[in-house]
Specification:
418 residues, Growth Hormone, Chain: A, mainly alpha
Amino acid sequence: MSLKGLGSYENRLLIILAVSFGFAFFDRNAVNYLTPYIVGELGLNNAQVGLLGSVLALSWAVAGYVIGRWSDAAGVRKPFLVGILLVFSACSVLSGLAASFPILLAARLIMGIAEGPMLPVCLAIMAIESSPTRRGLNTGVIQSVFSSLIGASIAPLVLVQLAEWFNWRVAFYLAGAPGLLCALAVMRYVREPRSADVADKKAAAVTGIGGPWAIFRERNIWLCCAIACLMVPWLMLHQTFLPLFLTKMRHLSNQQMSQVMSVLGVCAAFVGFCGPALSDRLGRKPVIFGLCSISLATPLAALYFQGSTLILAALMFIGWLGTGTFALFMGVIPTETLPARHAASGMGLVMGAGEVIGGFCAPLLGGWAADQTTLAAPIKIAAICAFSAAVLCLFLKETAPVKVGIPAIRPESADSLP
C-alpha cells in the first residue's frame, strides 16, 4: 500500500491533527518532567504528586466521553477542536503561575477537561477522511507518533533544560504557546467533515449496531475498556513515578533521567506509527497481544537491571513498544466495531474508562504505595497491569478489514483544501 501524495487533504489533515495532539500531550506530560523542581519549591509528597496526575486523568475521562457524545449529537467537530486547543494552552500558563499545590491542582483539573475530548474528536474526523486501508496507520500517527515525539521525547529535554536555564514556571509558560498556533492551523486548514449518515446506514446493516446505546452491548468495546484500565495505568505509573524512581532510587542525574525518558519517547513514536500500520496487514488481535506482552520489559528492566544507563535505556526502549497498543484499543478497534456516527462516543467511553480507573486511581494507588514502601511499588504495579492486559487481548474479536473481509466504509471526500 502506497501513501497518497503529500499534497492530499488526507495527509495534510493527518499532520495538523497529529501535531495538535502532540502538543496537547506535551502540556499534559510537562508536570511529570518538572516534578523534581516543583516538589522542592511547593513541598509536595508522593501522594500529592500522584494526585496531580489523577485529577487531570479524571477530568480528562469525564470530558472525553461527555463532550465526545456532545460532538456526536451536534454533528460537528471543528469548533470543539479549536476551543480545546485554546483552553489547554491557557491552562499551561496557569500551571506556571501556581503559587501553591491547590492552584496547581486546579490548573491540571481544567486542563483535563479541555484535553479529554481532543483525541476522540480528532480520530472521529480522521475516520471519515481516511482511506479504507489506512485507518490503522492514520490512527497510529495521530495518537502515538507526534504525541510521543513532541510529548514524550522532545518534552523532557526541552522542559528540563528550560527549568535549568530559568525555572519550572518559565517552562510551563512556553509549553502553552504551540497550542495557540495549532488552533490557528485548524481554523485555517481543517474543514468540517462530511456527514457520515450514508456510511453509517451501510455499517449498521453489516454490524447490526444501530442506536447510541448499542455500543454498550459490544464485547470489543468492553474488552477495550478493560484493556484501557490496565494499559493506561501502565503508562501513567511510569510517566508519573519513573522520573522520581530513576533519580532517587537508581541515582541518575536529572539530565540522565531526561535522556532515558526521551529515548522512551522516540520508541513510542516509532511503534505508534509501525504497530497500527502492521495491524492493517496482520490483524489487530495478534499485534495488540504481542505489544502488550513486550511491555513487561520496561518495568522489569527499571526494577531489576543493574548495568549501565545505556543498556537500561535500551531495555526500557524495547518494553516501551507497548505504547503501540493505545491507538488500537482506543481508536482503531472501537472505530471498526461501531458506525461512524457513534465513533467519538465509543472512543470517549474506552478512553474515559482507562482514565478513570487507570489514570485517576493508579497514580493515587501508586503514590500511596510509594509512601508506604518505596518508589519501586508503582513500577511493580505497572508490571502486573501489562501482564493482565496481554491476557485480555486474547478474547478480542478481530476487526481488521484484511482479516474479516468487510471493507471500511466512509463518505467520499475531496483531495483539496478549501
